[in-house]
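User: I've been trying to design a sequence by hand for this structure and keep getting stuck. Would you show me what you'd pick, starting by listing the structure so we're on the same page?

Assistant: Good idea, let's start from the same input. This is the structure you sent:
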């Protein structure tokens, strides 16, 4: 009895896999129309295939495997869009935070380690440019993004990554001085 149930499940799983493989192109087109990117659609479909094979025993006899899998795909697309929407909202909030950040007073700027400016020249050109325009020239993040033809979110991410890269360069070059914010730096010119 138990052996016949296992054989029946294995046969059902085999039927599910066969149907999924046979309809791969239709499934891919379905997802791609909803997400607008073939690469993303392939990723979502691959994940759905894995879940489909794992859940093959959920297909009811009277239910079409294709209909069942389309429901699974719809849910996968909806889940992706929810995650993507949350990510966009976080990037928007980050861009607004950067926009409202206050610049340090001039007396603090004058005291900051001069080697930081030298280290900035070692960054990737797009990171260096982002820091120069936003931190030195005082251009707003959204304006900088518009200037170079990217969204405010992408500009915010670029600035974040540029700051991160510069921070790593300063840590490597200045050691303990960097831990204290490079104020009243004793590195001296040429140290970096």
């Amino acid at each position: 009895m138990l052996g016949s149930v296992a054989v029946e499940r294995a046969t059902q799983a085999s039927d599910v896999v066969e149907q999924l493989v046979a309809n791969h192109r239709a499934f891919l087109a379905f997802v791609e129309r909803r997400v607008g990117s073939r690469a993303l659609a392939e990723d979502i479909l691959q994940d759905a295939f894995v879940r489909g094979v794992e859940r093959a025993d959920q297909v009811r006899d009277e239910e079409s495997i294709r209909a069942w899998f389309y429901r699974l795909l719809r849910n996968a697309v909806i889940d992706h869009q929810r995650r993507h929407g949350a990510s966009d909202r976080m990037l928007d909030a980050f861009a607004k935070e950067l926009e409202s950040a206050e610049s340090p007073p001039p007396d603090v700027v004058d005291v900051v380690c001069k080697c930081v400016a030298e280290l900035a020249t070692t960054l990737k050109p797009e990171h260096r440019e982002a820091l120069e325009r936003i931190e030195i020239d005082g251009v707003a993040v959204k304006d900088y993004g518009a200037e170079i033809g990217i969204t405010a979110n992408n500009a915010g991410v670029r600035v974040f990554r540029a700051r991160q890269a510069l921070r790593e360069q300063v840590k490597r070059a200045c050691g303990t001085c960097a831990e204290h914010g490079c104020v009243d730096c004793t590195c001296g010119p040429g140290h970096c």
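That's my pick for every position. To get oriented when you compare it with your attempt: The chain has two domains: 2-99, 103-179. The chain has a mean pLDDT of 77.
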